[in-house]
């Protein structure tokens, strides 16, 4: 897409110069009373020239757009699923063992390989957009769309819902983490292993207060964001709050209704401090 933009810029600059030149030429002839060959200008520069230029740009843009389309039969493509919820993103991908891994607001991909994203919506229309990697694609309930993206270099690429979907639309962000190809399998393995110890003291209060919506198992889907590997992330609430330590997690659990109004998560402020501490330690233990 960046290449297409440069092609269009390169084509537009000489066209702009040509139009300005013809305008000055016409003014000068009119001031001298010489007039213009209107028919020649209209047919040549008003019809033939723009049609020719636009035809070339059309071919270039169609070829570029075609490269963004997913092709199910193409080999060596990483396939993932992105599901838009109000107001967070669920990602489903498969590790080397064939296990489905569910994560929230973070997608792991290998750099240098094509990735096919199946885009779905759970409730209303959203739009999947990673500006540095690909164009926008709507997430429509009941109508999955396919989008192709590729990160040429390892790094972290920010994404955003690009279709207004309600109160917290602006805070429906996510990140794509592109790993070096040789480290991609290990990254998925870390996510698959990022499950808290069921014998942890916080497992019981988590089950009593959180497990009806959230899962801490990467292979299990839930009605709310999957919390497996939460301690590996650096943001909470789909980008609403930076996550640096347990204090930030406590802040989110006790004040999230003020940080992200309308998120649908019930208040945890009334939980006894000991239970809240146990839940926080339980979630942070899965790294």
From TrEMBL:
It is a multi-pass membrane protein. CDD domains: CuRO_CcO_Caa3_II. It catalyses: 4 Fe(II)-[cytochrome c] + O2 + 8 H(+)(in) = 4 Fe(III)-[cytochrome c] + 2 H2O + 4 H(+)(out). Gene3D superfamilies: Cupredoxins - blue copper proteins (2.60.40.420). Signal peptide: none annotated. GO terms for cellular component: membrane. GO terms for biological process: ATP synthesis coupled electron transport. It is found in: Membrane. GO terms for molecular function: copper ion binding; cytochrome-c oxidase activity; heme binding; oxidoreductase activity. The keyword Transmembrane helix applies. Keywords: Copper, Electron transport, Heme, Iron, Membrane, Metal-binding, Oxidoreductase, Respiratory chain, Transmembrane, Transmembrane helix, Transport. Its main location: membrane. Residues 197-287 form the Cytochrome c domain. PROSITE patterns: COX2 (PS00078), COX2_CUA (PS50857), CYTC (PS51007). It holds the Pfam family COX2. Residues 75-190 form the Cytochrome oxidase subunit II copper A binding domain. The chain crosses the membrane at residues 6-27, 39-62. Subunits I and II form the functional core of the enzyme complex. Electrons originating in cytochrome c are transferred via heme a and Cu(A) to the binuclear center formed by heme a3 and Cu(B). Belongs to the cytochrome c oxidase subunit 2 family. This is Cytochrome aa3 subunit 2. The lineage of its organism: Bacteria, Pseudomonadati, Pseudomonadota, Alphaproteobacteria, Acetobacterales.
């Amino acid at each position: 897409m960046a290449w297409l933009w440069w092609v269009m810029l390169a084509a537009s600059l000489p066209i702009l110069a040509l139009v300005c030149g013809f305008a000055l030429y016409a003014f000068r002839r009119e001031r001298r009373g010489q007039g213009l060959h209107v028919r020649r200008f209209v047919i040549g520069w008003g019809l033939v020239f723009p049609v020719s230029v636009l035809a070339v740009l059309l071919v270039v843009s169609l070829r570029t757009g075609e490269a963004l389309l997913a092709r199910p039969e193409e080999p060596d493509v990483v396939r993932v699923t992105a599901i838009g919820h109000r107001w967070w993103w669920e990602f489903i991908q498969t590790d080397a063992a064939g296990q489905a891994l569910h994560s929230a607001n973070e997608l792991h991909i290998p750099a240098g390989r094509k990735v096919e994203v199946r885009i779905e919506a759970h409730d209303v229309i959203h739009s999947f957009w990673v500006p540095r990697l690909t164009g926008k694609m709507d997430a429509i309930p009941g109508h999955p769309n396919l989008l192709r993206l590729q990160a040429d270099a390892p790094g972290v690429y920010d994404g955003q819902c690009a279709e207004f979907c309600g109160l917290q639309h602006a805070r429906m962000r996510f990140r794509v983490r592109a790993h070096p190809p040789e480290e991609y399998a290990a990254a998925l393995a870390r996510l698959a292993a990022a499950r808290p110890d069921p014998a942890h003291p916080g497992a019981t209060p988590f089950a009593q207060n959180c497990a009806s919506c959230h899962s801490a198992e990467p292979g299990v889907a839930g009605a709310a964001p999957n919390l497996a590997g939460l301690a590996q992330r650096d943001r909470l609430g789909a980008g609403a709050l930076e996550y640096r330590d347990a204090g930030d997690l406590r802040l989110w659990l006790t004040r999230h209704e003020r940080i992200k109004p309308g998120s649908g998560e019930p208040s945890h402020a009334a939980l006894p401090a000991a239970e809240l501490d146990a839940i926080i330690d339980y979630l942070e233990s899965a790294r």
